[in-house]
From TrEMBL:
Highest classification ranks of the organism: Bacteria, Pseudomonadati, Bacteroidota, Flavobacteriia, Flavobacteriales
Protein name: Patatin-like phospholipase
Organism: Cellulophaga baltica
Keywords, alphabetical: Hydrolase, Lipid degradation, Lipid metabolism
Chain positions of motif GXSXG: 36-40
Matching InterPro entries: Acyl_Trfase/lysoPLipase, PNPLA_dom
């Protein structure tokens, strides 16, 4: 059983899309299980349907307004570096309306429903492949995995949306009496879950460099500080997930093939720039092609 696992990473998901396109279309890999966190959850339904051109068009044309119904920050470029500033009016408007977060991402939920049709959902649900998204249950302090086989169309679209909600900048969702947020807050790279579900070979796309290559810019404001803090915590979670994944693979005789980003794509994955994302998609495709050309068969990750 072969699984494709895609980590969280916001706008960097475009790179993962390029890698997945090569693996599916050129390397002719056939996956039984697709498992994604955050931006990974947005990709996997379309990849499971082999509708790669469709999801590529979405990822290379998306704007901030397609994600945020109320964007809590503004961006500006200084000395070639994009920095986040607080959009005071939008934040105050959100608090005035009784929201617990700085911004809202209702537009993303609508985008998901506009791009995954009921017919496509039924094709996946009635097919042999399993599509699983990761969410964080803040009320019960646990990570949950939501399979397309267990939910209706509207419910599953909502779980995909919840998996992407990078709180406190995006929506906090109350569902079934619990508060839910971005799956990456608990599991950035769900390799362990893929193996638990029976995968013997896992292709894991990690939207981070294998070795840290940057020192973050000093925090300019409270939002900049928060994003730096969250980035630090998510990096630690990601490294832990990978270590656990290697351990579980070793004890289950499973193979993991890792695909890291070869360079730092962005220091702020909440900025959705269609030009950059189009370049990242092509970069992901070319990187997977280069890695594959190094040998006729990808070498498995050594886990012992």
């Amino acid at each position: 059983m072969r699984a494709l696992v895609i980590s969280g990473g916001g706008s960097k998901g475009a790179f993962a899309g390029g890698v997945a396109q090569y693996l599916i279309e050129e390397a002719q890999q056939h996956y039984d299980l697709f498992l994604g966190t955050s931006t990974g959850s947005l990709l996997i339904s379309h990849l499971g349907l082999h509708k790669i051109a469709k999801i590529k068009e979405i990822y290379t044309s998306v704007h901030q307004k397609d994600i945020f119904s109320n964007c809590p920050f503004s961006t500006q470029k200084k000395h070639g570096v994009e920095t986040i500033g607080i959009h005071h009016f939008n934040v105050l408007k959100n608090f005035y309306s009784g929201s617990k977060t700085f911004g809202e991402s209702l537009n993303l939920l609508q985008l998901i429903k506009n791009t995954i049709t009921l017919e496509e959902f039924n094709t996946l649900k009635n097919g042999p492949k399993d599509i699983v998204v990761t969410v964080s249950n803040l009320s019960l302090n646990q990570v949950e995995y939501k399979s397309i086989n267990d939910f209706s169309y509207d419910e599953f679209c909502e779980w995909v949306w919840i998996s992407c909600n990078y709180t406190p900048f995006m929506s906090l969702v109350k569902k079934d009496g619990c508060e839910y947020a971005d799956g990456g807050l608990g599991t950035m790279v769900p390799i362990e879950e893929a193996i638990k579900r029976g995968a013997t070979t896992v292709d894991a796309i990690i939207l981070q460099t294998e070795v840290t290559h940057l020192n973050r810019m000093p925090s300019k404001n409270v939002f900049s500080l928060l994003t730096n803090m969250f980035a630090f915590m998510l990096d630690r979670i990601e490294h832990q997930n990978i270590r656990i994944g290697k351990y579980v693979a070793k004890h289950n005789n499973a193979i993991i093939n890792f695909y890291y980003t070869p360079t730092v794509l962005t220091t702020n994955s909440l900025i959705f720039d269609k030009t950059k994302m189009a370049a990242w998609w092509e970069s992901g495709f070319n990187y997977a092609k280069f890695k594959s050309s190094e040998s006729s068969q990808l070498e498995p990750e050594i886990t012992n």
